[in-house]
Amino acid sequence: MEYDVIILGLGGVGSAAAWQSSLRSRRVLGLEQFHAGHDQGSSHGATRIIRQAYFEHPDYVPLLLRAYQLWHKLETKVSTPLFEPCGLLEVGPEDGELIPGIRESVRQHHLQLQELTLSTAATQFPQFVIPKGSVAVFEPTAGFLHVENCVLQMQAAAIHNGADLRFEQAVESIEFAGQDRILVRTTVEPFATRRLIITAGSWASKWLSQSNIPLRILRKQLQWFATNDLRFQSPHCPAFFYECANGWFYGFPAIDQAGVKVAEHSGGIELVSPEAVDRALDASEAERSRAFCRQYLPSITSPVVRHDVCLYTMSPDQHFLVDHLSELPGTVFAAGLSGHGFKFATVLGQALTELAMDGGTDLPIQFLRSSRFAG
Ligand SMILES: Cc1cc2nc3c(=O)[nH]c(=O)nc-3n(C[C@H](O)[C@H](O)[C@H](O)COP(=O)(O)OP(=O)(O)OC[C@H]3O[C@@H](n4cnc5c(N)ncnc54)[C@H](O)[C@@H]3O)c2cc1C
């Protein structure tokens, strides 16, 4: 069978692309090297922050607003929880990167944000320490996504619409076969398609080698700390994000008895390949998160009760790459999501589907084109 679209990689973004493509065609094939909802890439580990006041760049905000719409649309179709609107507490220096960036997005896009004085922050969020001299803001429209549920539900929605999703089947080669046809060979069998969407996460470099855009892979460690402090219990506690002098740390309220999840957004161990990852607990990384807790979440004192390892794929400027693949007609890709891409999965799925099927999209993704690195 010849497919209208093949999606290479069914992590967060590929599953969204499968869902969005399946709304347009019944001949959609998704190929994934591991099992559904696996923990080898970048879309696992229980939770992901979703927020609108985007400190990274205000141009992401229109995409976020569309991403929110699509997450809510998906949520209406399923019975498992996807989005927890617990809000987000963000803390950093007045003249740092986080707070000025948030304020700029809020200013340009008229978003909701509560500026907190140190005393209102202490009253509203007594479980957190807000150091003197720093600024605290609360974003009420933010929250977190249940990451594995999101991936599995997007896959289920795609299958429901007639998409053919195959797991434990790695793509080994892709080639242009002329006349609008692309041949995709897997470890099991070959497939033909008119359009190919590459969403290979940390494995993307293999397919983008001619673009010469260096993607770096970082190992990231997540830790869960047990707590009896009910103020950290979901749904009464916000997610949190701190820009500190020694790094950027973030975390999530305790869900059921799982503990408070804390991780470092900065740093990370660089890997030569996604397979080269050591998934054992790294004691020095765990100690950095514990030190963050001692300083800012002082009632969290337990040892690490669970940990996980996950991969960031960094573009040179830490902004996403979403574009046509110039060397292979009919092929589009998303890559280099740089540790902040999951919240966008739904809208990236739509953008990739439109780029692949229509040759372009009205979504404002021009700032993510790979041509910004030309020369
Ligand atoms: C620790 C951590 C915390 C994060 N926190 C946040 C957050 O709070 N908010 C947020 O928005 N984002 C966050 N991110 C980033 C976000 O999770 C990622 O940007 C996003 O999940 C990337 O999705 P992806 O589909 O590109 O990659 P993946 O989910 O890794 O999917 C790529 C898929 O392609 C498959 N694949 C690759 N090669 C082949 C092949 N040859 N054949 C078949 N299949 C193949 C892989 O197996 C994989 O399933 C975080 C990331 C990490 C690691």
Commentary on this structure:
The protein is globular, with a radius of gyration of 21 Å. The protein folds into 2 domains: 2-44 and 148-215 and 317-373, 3-Layer(bba) Sandwich (FAD/NAD(P)-binding domain), CATH 3.50.50.60; 88-140 and 216-313, 2-Layer Sandwich (D-Amino Acid Oxidase, Chain A, domain 2). It is built from 7 helices and 20 strands. The model has no long low-confidence stretch (mean pLDDT 97). Strands 5, 6, 7, 13, 14, 15, 16, 17 and 18 form a 9-stranded mixed β-sheet that branches. Strands 1, 2, 9, 10, 11, 12, 19 and 20 form an 8-stranded mixed β-sheet that branches. Strands 3-8-4 form a 3-stranded antiparallel β-sheet. The chain is 24% helix and 30% strand. It is an alpha+beta fold. β14 and β15 (247-252) form a beta hairpin. Bound molecules: flavin-adenine dinucleotide. Flavin-adenine dinucleotide binds next to α1, β3, β13 and β18. Flavin-adenine dinucleotide (FAD) binds next to α1, β3, β13 and β18.
Q: Can you summarize this structure?
A:
With 375 residues, the protein is an alpha+beta fold. It has helices at 12-22, 61-77, 98-109, 118-124, 147-160, 283-296, 345-358; strands at 2-8, 28-31, 47-50, 83-84, 88-93, 114-116, 134-139, 143-146, 164-166, 171-178, 181-186, 190-198, 216-225, 239-244, 247-252, 260-264, 269-271, 304-314, 321-324, 331-335. Strand 11 (181-186) and strand 12 (190-198) form a beta hairpin.
The total strand number stands at: 20
Give the N-terminus to C-terminus distance in angstroms.
Answer: 40 Å
| Tally of separate helices | 7
SSE-based structural type? alpha+beta
Unreliable residue stretches: none
